[in-house]
Amino acid sequence: MAAIAGVLVLAAAVAEAGPLPAFKAQSVELPADAAAFPDGPNVKTVTQNCLACHSADMVLDQPLLARPTWAAEVTKMRNVYKAPISDADAALIVDYLAATHSPP
Ligand code: HEC
């Protein structure tokens, strides 16, 4: 009941404020969202295992990371977030990340 009274008070306040300003259509430029992983070794395995919970951007927006850091990241996805990734696939994924997203 209190909630309904609140809505009525709010409605009255809006009515008192007079006519609403006219709204104009606006368009905004959204940043491009990388939906796919760029080509590289084992990219199919990466695509199959790493897009279930978040976009490729979550991975691609990271700085260039050394292989052990990527290995730890994939382990985190498996252990903390329960990503169902086999040992074999995890190794292939770390190879991809080390090849495509590591410092030279
Ligand atoms: C079971 C769901 C799931 C899968 C599958 C998954 N992730 Fe994640 N990932 C998450 C969650 C949850 C976060 C944290 C999101 C947040 O902080 O908003 C995350 C975040 C990340 C981050 C950002 C850094 C961090 O540690 O938070 C990276 C990089 C990442 N994931 C890489 C991967 C890679 C590579 C794969 C494929 C091997 C993968 N993820 C698969 C759930 C998953």
Describe the protein.
The chain is mostly helical and 104 residues long. It has one domain (32-104): Cytochrome Bc1 Complex, Chain D, domain 2. It has 5 helices and no strands. The protein has helices at 2-16, 43-50, 57-60, 67-79, 87-100. Helix 2 crosses helix 5 (87-100) and helix 4 packs antiparallel against helix 5. The longest helix has 15 residues, at 2-16. The radius of gyration is 24 Å and the shape is elongated. 14% of the residues are buried. The site of heme C has 17 residues, from helix 2, helix 3 and helix 4.
At the first level of CATH, the class is: Mainly Alpha
| CATH fold title | Cytochrome Bc1 Complex, Chain D, domain 2
Number of strands: 0
Assess the beta-strand content as a share of residues.
Answer: under 5%
CATH architecture: Orthogonal Bundle
**Alpha plus pi helix count:** 5
The level of helicity is 40-55%
